[in-house]
């Protein structure tokens, strides 16, 4: 606290304490929702001692710090129960060494505006150092004060009053590993013409934010193979398009089926392994030097050879989804998935995150799931499309490096994206609709279909990178061209529910295995009984999720 501000409190301690004691509950009304009985709490800037006394009555073990000796005297006179709990001290580096090093919680009410910009980072760092892992930080700060003199940063009494935006303060603490739990806005408890915001943070103890940890896996982790990149890519794709297959634990952890990750790996690596003789694209340092290849190269190559006469990856994708792979290909598929799954568990699940000293993932053998922390899963869900693009670029750069200049990253990117191409066009569903188009109508307008109608991805392929049957609908060419990469509005979906469900019933009858599998991926469970309503709800959720996260434009026919 600077000298003019401290002088004001020293000279007016009695009046200040009287006003504080007479004011409404203010930030203290939030204490029961933040601090728990038995927790050790430090209040910095105790003022009249009112809030510290409230914390003590709630059963917390409170210590309080106040830089003004006159205010400390007023606090002890009003709240003698704080004897032995009230100390001299100030931020950022003036906290007394005699009090405990680590606290469960810290309260900073009406203090941060007295801290100059030059000391703000040091203040935030000090607060983090005094909190336990997962500790709570409650900051109450003014949003607007009508008494601050323009240009001076001080009020009429000469006190320093730095008005900062909530976004600025939030970013500062988040960069130091704090996570915002809640935010409240309120008027002034003393009836003044002020607005206040209270921020509730939790400290991660200095560990990096989830997005930084993901970035470390992509960029900083030591990588001798492309496995870590493939794992992050798969988790991004699942978080964005198959989130219902993940299971939340009461602890907050998320379980993702290893089988689903393995299937995605198969499609990622297929184009990289399906090359002309002698044109190997190395995916590990050893095989780049003529040594041991990636663990599943042999098994996946055998499956590729088996499926080449059938039509390659496009035919494989269709037959596998519909449950009609020939016995030989089915056996090779199972073998490849087993080896891929073992590689995932023994490799990136065990070692991803090693650059920061602690693996980010785990494997639960009992459930057959990869375990992901909730904060990592949240970032993958919200930022997955950006993270996936970064992963593909790093993967291409690494493969080009392993090829020792024989390939450019652009050529590798083409192959990494080729794994999704079999799902862009779906001749099976189009052929079915063509055979039954008499009596069908455009799903979005109800117009009769001519022979040149098309199949529309309700959620555009650009966003979903797959073509599940529940997302494919007949539409006139004009409507399909008008809609393009836009999402139907919720109003349109509700208006055309009957037509949507009618298409689903037809596809479910014609392709029962495929439709059930793809609906289960969306819903997280096999559809049974009256499946139309749950699927419609899941369909709406997928559309709205894509709209909010990807910022997709909405559409409805004119």
In short:
The chain is of the alpha/beta class.
Can you put this structure into words, describing what you see?
This protein has 558 residues and is of the alpha/beta class. It has three domains: 3-203, Rossmann fold; 210-423, no CATH class; 427-555, no CATH class. 47% of the residues lie in helices and 14% in strands. It has 24 helices and 15 strands. It has helices at residues 3-11, 13-22, 31-34, 50-57, 69-78, 120-129, 166-175, 210-220, 227-241, 258-273, 285-288, 297-307, 312-321, 327-346, 348-351, 374-402, 409-418, 427-435, 461-464, 477-483, 490-495, 497-510, 512-523, 532-550, and strands spanning 40-44, 61-65, 86-87, 103-109, 131-145, 178-187, 194-203, 247-248, 254-257, 361-364, 369-372, 454-457, 472-475, 487-488, 554-555. The strands form four sheets. The chain has a seven-stranded mixed β-sheet, with helices on both faces. Strands 8-9-11-10 form a four-stranded antiparallel β-sheet. Strands 12-13 form a two-stranded antiparallel sheet. α4 links the parallel β1 and β2 (61-65). α9 (227-241) packs across α16 (374-402). The longest helix has 29 residues, at 374-402. The chain is elongated and about 90 Å long. The N and C termini lie far apart (63 Å). The model has no long low-confidence stretch (mean pLDDT 89).
């Amino acid at each position: 606290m600077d000298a003019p501000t401290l002088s004001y409190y020293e000279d007016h301690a009695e009046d200040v304490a009287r006003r504080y004691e007479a004011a409404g509950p203010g930030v203290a009304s939030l204490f029961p929702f933040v601090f728990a009985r038995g927790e050790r709490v430090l209040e910095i800037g105790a003022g009249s001692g009112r809030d510290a006394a409230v914390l003590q009555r709630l059963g917390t073990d409170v210590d309080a710090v106040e830089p003004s000796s006159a205010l400390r005297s007023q606090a002890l006179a009003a709240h003698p129960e704080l004897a032995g709990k009230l100390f001299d001290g100030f931020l950022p580096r003036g906290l007394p060494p005699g009090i405990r090093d680590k606290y469960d919680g810290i309260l900073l009410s009406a203090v941060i505006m007295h801290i100059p910009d030059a000391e703000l980072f040091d203040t935030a760092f000090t607060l983090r150092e005094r909190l336990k892992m997962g500790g709570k930080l409650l900051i109450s700060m003014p949003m607007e004060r009508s008494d601050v003199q323009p240009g001076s940063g001080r009020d009429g009494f000469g006190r320093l009053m730095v008005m900062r935006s909530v976004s600025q303060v939030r970013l500062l603490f988040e960069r130091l590993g704090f996570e915002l739990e809640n935010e409240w806005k309120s008027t002034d408890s003393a009836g003044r013409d002020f607005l206040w915001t209270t921020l509730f943070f939790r400290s991660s103890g200095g560990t990096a934010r989830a997005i930084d940890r993901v970035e470390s896996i992509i960029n900083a982790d030591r990588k001798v193979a492309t496995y870590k990149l493939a794992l992050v890519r798969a988790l991004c794709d699942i978080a964005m398009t198959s989130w219902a297959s993940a299971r939340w634990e009461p602890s907050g952890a998320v379980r993702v089926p290893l089988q689903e990750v393995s299937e995605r790996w198969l499609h990622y690596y297929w184009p990289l392994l399906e090359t002309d003789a002698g044109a190997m694209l190395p995916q590990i340092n050893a095989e780049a030097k003529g040594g041991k290849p990636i663990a599943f190269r042999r098994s996946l190559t055998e499956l590729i050879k088996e499926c080449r006469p059938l039509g390659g990856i496009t035919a494989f994708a269709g037959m596998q989804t519909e449950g009609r792979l020939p016995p030989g290909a089915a056996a090779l598929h199972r073998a490849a998935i087993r080896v891929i799954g073992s590689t995932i568990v023994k490799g990136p699940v065990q070692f991803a995150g090693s650059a920061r000293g602690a693996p980010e993932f785990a494997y639960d053998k009992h459930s057959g799931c990869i375990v992901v922390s909730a904060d990592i899963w949240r970032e993958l869900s919200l930022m997955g499309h950006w993270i996936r693009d970064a992963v593909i670029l790093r993967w291409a750069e690494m493969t080009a490096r392993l090829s020792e200049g024989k390939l450019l990253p652009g050529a590798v990117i083409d192959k990494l994206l080729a794994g999704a191409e079999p799902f862009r066009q779906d001749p099976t569903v189009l052929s079915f609709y063509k055979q039954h188009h008499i009596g069908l109508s455009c799903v979005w307008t109800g117009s009769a279909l001519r022979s040149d109608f098309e199949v529309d991805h309700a959620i555009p392929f650009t966003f979903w990178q797959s073509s599940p049957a529940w997302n494919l609908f007949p539409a006139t060419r004009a409507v399909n061209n008008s809609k393009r990469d836009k999402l139907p509005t919720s109003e349109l979906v509700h208006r055309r529910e009957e037509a949507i469900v009618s298409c689903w019933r037809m596809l479910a009858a014609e392709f029962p295995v495929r439709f059930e599998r793809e609906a289960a991926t969306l819903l997280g469970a096999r559809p049974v009984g009256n499946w139309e309503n749950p699927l419609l709800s899941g369909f709406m959720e997928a559309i709205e999720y894509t709209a909010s996260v990807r910022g997709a434009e909405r559409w409805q026919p004119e």
